[in-house]
Amino acid sequence: MDQLDDEKMVKVCDKLIEVFMVDKPRATDWRRLLAFSREWDNIRPRFFSRCQEKADAEEDPGMKHRLLRLGRKLKEVDDDVQRHNKLLEVISEAPADIGEIVTRRRKDFTREFFEHFHVVAESYHEDPAKQNALAALGNACLAAVQAYDSASESIEALNAAELKFQDIINSPSLDVACRKIDSLAEKKELDSALMLMLTKAWSSAKESNMMKDEVKDILYHLYMTARGNLQRLVPKEIRILKYLLTIEDPEEQNSALRDAFTPGDELEGKDMDALYTTPEKLFTWITSVLDAYNFSREGTLIREARDLMNPKVIQRLEELKKVLQNNFL
């Protein structure tokens, strides 16, 4: 670089230093400015040495400190931006391999990377085609990351369930195995993955001609113990609702509602429950189910209530809601 070019670059750097220190003093602003800049790659080598030169020549200790801090902090931001740009370059060159890239480099696909990606796409506001291509690439990356995370969580859940399952099966007695299932339920660790394994074990045993009846009985008992515990984890209002929806006759349904709103000793059995609630609580649950259905907000609804999300069931819930409003509220 000749002297004239260096003088011009010094002026550019001095102007940028002023911008970074006065007009845009926050690190979030720096990230945006670097992502938007098409000239930063040319400026970078001179900028940091210029920060040091100005700091060395500065007599005011406060300003010296600010200049040194700017150089240090901006270098950290620049390193992040360069790392994000390199990853962006990798996926831009091989968009068909995004899934494989995510699998290999998942830790690099951070929230900060996607924020940088968004800013880079935004910087092409004068080139809609380029901007749209980057937006599509960003969406593909996000989808690949979500798919990878979901698969990883599923694998982790299955591995954890397998350990629990083996611990139950290897118990010294049926009573001990059942107590382990009860304990898992109390700790909210009796999940769907473990329940699936117990169900499959019992189902396979039931259909097998090679397995002793004693083993079948044990697996059936374990399955029923887990099923009973899982059922008790469902909010009682949902269990009451499901029972009410099995009653076709309006008078019989009204009678069941009155029973449900009459306090007494609550009993939970394998085949029959005696549960009690209030009209207000039941009305709230019905409203929650209907809201989730009408506004597609299933995420707000606990998973145990999702089998109520059926158009025919929804119609009956609407009718039940009116009955509650007219007769009990």
Automatic annotation (TrEMBL):
Protein source organism:
Spirodela intermedia (Intermediate duckweed)
Q: What is this protein called?
A: Uncharacterized protein
Q: Which GO terms describe its cellular component?
A: chloroplast envelope; chloroplast thylakoid membrane
UniProt superkingdom: Eukaryota
